[in-house]
Structures are given as structure tokens and as C-alpha cells.
Amino acid sequence: MFPERLEDRLVLSTFTVTNTNASGAGSLPAEVALANAATDEAIVQFDSTVFATHQTITLTGTLTLDHASEPKIPISILGPTAGVTIAGGGSGSDFSVITVTSDTQQAAIKGDSASGPITITDGNLTGSTESGAGIDDFGDLVLDNVAITNNTSAGSGGGVEVSGGPDIFTSNPGAALLAADTTFSGNKAAAAGGGVDMEGSGALIVNSTFSGNTAGTNGGAIENGPMLVPTFVVPLNLGVVNDTISGNTATVFGGGIDNGNGGILGILNAVVAGNTVAAGGSGADVDSGGSSGIYSGSSHDVIGSADGLQGSGITDGSNSNVVGHPALLAPLGDYGGANASGTVSTGSGDLQTFALLPGSPAINDAFVLANLTADATAAATTIQAGTQLPLPSLNGSTFPYEQGTVILIGSEQILVTGVSGSAQSGYTLTVTRGVNGTTAAAHSSGDPIVLPDERGVFAASNAVGAFQTQGFNVTAKATPQSTAVSTAFANALGVTVTANDPNA
């Protein structure tokens, strides 16, 4: 999850979508056009009555985010609680659903929660030189609780194309995508990058799922191209963290991820398994691009096939990596989600995940991404926190902490109401203690901070990938009896225990 930067705002303008029309007053394109022209921070939101239930807006042309007048001031589309679908024209059309211009350095598209994502679908591009059927991104873009589904490009980037861009990774042009709690599914590219294609850019993709994406050449889920500049503030241009990538297909290299043409890939706490390449191809799950293409700190991963990892340093048993063993994933499905209040729902059907089956090597294999950096009393309203990820300074983001969401320390749930700082200097979190029926308690420096998974659900065990396992205990409460009783029943007696995921 990636937040907006709040502390420096002076003025905020909101623009409300009041209908599902493709044009005219109150339509999404009209309100985005007004937001583009704003000279202060602009938020496009949706009328709570009109969008009280899930609605679909079918566009007749590309929706463009272009905050050129104030490129460093955020412009955001914030979805309604019920979610909303933004659709292109499908197979009979020739346009991307959304484009982010190079003048837009802090754009965000955010669904309300795992149960109400923004779905971007039915983008279609017919030219072999075109790219980014779902989203064509030239700027700095944050995706959070978004489903990128069923987009098709005759060129590259079926779901998202990331082409250069300004400054997400501070002082390093070319890094343009931060995606969290996002599902990329059913996207197709005739060339590279069925889900995401990166050219001269960088990205951090966290708590996200890739499934059913197809590339005609390389990178069924993700194609990682070269960095735009030779040196970076961190030793990678693509970070794949707590993601699950399965069921994707490429023809030549990297059914899951292809790391080619000088890209540097870091994989941490990720499941990449069950992907395929055509006969004669390389890297069913990951094609690493050799020893120079992999960040040396890649660890705690479950990768199904060793093919394509030769020389990468990622081997079975190294850095807590599991390579060449079945990942044991349940089918892609809707396993429920939660919002900041702790309310769990069954989801919209778009933000789907792969649950972990019993015995999966991904269970209890992850390393802790976040931790306290100072002691915190039970009464403290600010706490000091850090991250163990190799992160650069991210424009407009305080990842891995987000204002308005809940973190877990021990058994206490804590609402984050404000965030300041950076990955390098550490974070100060302004918090409300003991929310969702939990009790505030004292915590010590170094204590792990548990972040919610893609569904907004906390883990009962620290699992690899976008889906965190949950469990429960069943305890007999009846008093034991010693008197034998013989009773005949017409039907056999039984008990049914129902959980909200297949791991319990």
C-alpha cells in the first residue's frame, strides 16, 4: 500500500463523478479534465449515492492524467467503497484505458479496499508499435487496490507499459511505477510484458498477484528492461516483494518474469511458480539475465523452476530460497478481504489471490519487512519504525507505511493516522492505539511490525507471497462423560468448520 504525502499540502481540490457517462458534466473524463487543470492537489472521487453499488464506466477514448501545470503536486483517482470498473472499448477499439503523461510526477489510482478495487479492463491496442493497453505510463504512478484485467496489446505491455518517466526513485529518472495490493490477470501482449512491460524505468511491486497474463515474446507477467541511467540509489530497478506470480505464459524468455537487456531484479518474499514458456524457451518462472541481473539480497522466495536462474545466485537453500519444489497454491480465487476497520468481506471478484495449501513451502518462510526502531509504551501516540527493504527515497510515498491503515504489533492492532520520514532515515508514525477490539501494550525496539496482505488481512504465520495464511484452534469445551450411551440415529453425526481461506 502506498500513501499520498500529506504533510506539505496547502490546498486540496476535489472533483466528484456523479454519473457513469463517457462524457459530459459529472462524467469521469470531465472531472479528470478539471483535475488536470487544477493548480493544487487534485482528487477525483465518486458520488456515494450513485456509486453505492459497483458500477461500470465504459470509455470512448483514453482517460489522460496530465497534471502538467503542477507536475510535482499529486493528482489522484480514489475509488468508492463498492469499487468501480473503468473499461475501454474492447476488441473493436484502439486505445489505452488510461495514460499518465511524463509531466505528471505524483499520480495515484487507488481502490477503497480489497473488497472494492478499481478495475481497469478492456483496453485494446491494434498497432504493433503501441504499448500499454490498460495503462500507458510515462510519469510517476501509484496503484493501490487496483485490478488490471483482460487488456490486450498488439505491441508490448498488455496490462501496463512503464516507459521512462521522471523521478519516483529520487534523483534517478526513469523509475515510474509503484504498485501494491494489485492484481494483474488475463492481460495479453503480442510482444513483451503480458502484465507489465518496463522500458528505461523502475518499479516496486508489493503484495500483488499476477495470473493468466500472456506475452508473445518475453515476460508473461513482467518484462524488466534496462535502467535509464547507469547508477541507481539502490542496486535494482525492479523490486518484486511479497508477490505471487503463477499461471502466466511467454513464448521465448520468462513465463513469469523476464529480466533482460540490462535490468536488475530483486525478488524478496515472493512466490514465482507454475508459469510456462513454449518449447525451446528459457525460464519457465524466471529468466534472470545472468549473474549481473539479480540483486544479491534476493531471499525468502519460492520459485518453482530452476531453469533460467543459472548464474543468478538464487539456488535451492541459498538465502532461505526454495527452488524447484511444488509451491502448493490453491486456484486463483476470491478469498475475502478487509478494510481499515477490520471488517472482512467476500470481495468483488476482481482482486483475486492464490491461497497457500497446507504444506506449501511458502508458509512460515518469509522474513519480516518492518520493525520498531525504538521502544514504545502502551500510551505512546507516536512510534518509530523502519524497514529492512533496500528501498530508495520514493517521491510522494512513505512505503511500507500508509496513513489510514492498520498495522499489527504483537496482538495489538494500531491505526496509522500520520507518517513522516523515509526508508533511509526511518519513519515516525502518528497512531491510535488498540483498535478493532485489541488492547494497547508496551513494545520493544526490534519488534516485528506485521503489514496486511493483498486482501488487507493480517497473517497468523509469516508467509511468502501476496496471500498470508491464517489459522485457528478448536478446543473441546464439554465435560468428559464416563457413562456409556447407546443411541441410534437415522443420519451420521458430523461437524462442519468453515474458515475464510483454505489453509485453516
What report would you give on this structure?
The chain is mainly beta and 504 residues long. It folds into 2 domains: 345 residues, 3 Solenoid (Pectate Lyase C-like), CATH 2.160.20; 80 residues. It has 1 helix and 43 strands. Strands 3-6-9-13-17-21-25-29-32-33 form a 10-stranded parallel beta sheet, with no helix packed on it. A hairpin with a 2-residue loop joins strand 40 and strand 41. The N terminus and C terminus are likely disordered.
CATH topology grouping of the largest domain: Pectate Lyase C-like
The CATH architecture designation of the largest domain is 3 Solenoid
How many domains? The number is 2
**Shape type:** globular
Fraction of residues in H or I helices: under 10%
Largest sheet: 10 strands, parallel
Helix count from the secondary structure assignment: 1
Our estimate of the beta-strand percent is 25-35%
* Structural class estimated from helices and strands: mainly beta
Q: In CATH, what is the class of the largest domain?
A: Mainly Beta
Task: Compute the separation of the termini in Å.
Answer: 26 Å
Mind sketching the topology for me?
Elements: E1 12-17, H1 28-37, E2 41-46, E3 55-58, E4 63-65, E5 75-78, E6 84-87, E7 98-100, E8 107-110, E9 118-121, E10 124-125, E11 135-137, E12 141-144, E13 146-149, E14 152-153, E15 160-163, E16 175-180, E17 183-185, E18 188-189, E19 196-199, E20 202-206, E21 209-211, E22 214-215, E23 222-224, E24 238-241, E25 244-245, E26 249-250, E27 257-259, E28 265-268, E29 271-272, E30 276-277, E31 286-287, E32 302-303, E33 322-323, E34 329-333, E35 337-338, E36 344-345, E37 353-356, E38 370-372, E39 382-387, E40 406-409, E41 412-422, E42 426-432, E43 448-449
Parallel strand pairs: 1-2, 2-5, 3-6, 4-7, 5-8, 6-9, 7-11, 8-12, 9-13, 10-14, 11-15, 12-16, 13-17, 14-18, 15-19, 16-20, 17-21, 18-22, 19-23, 20-24, 21-25, 22-26, 23-27, 24-28, 25-29, 26-30, 27-31, 29-32, 32-33
Antiparallel strand pairs: 34-37, 35-36, 38-39, 38-43, 39-42, 40-41, 41-42
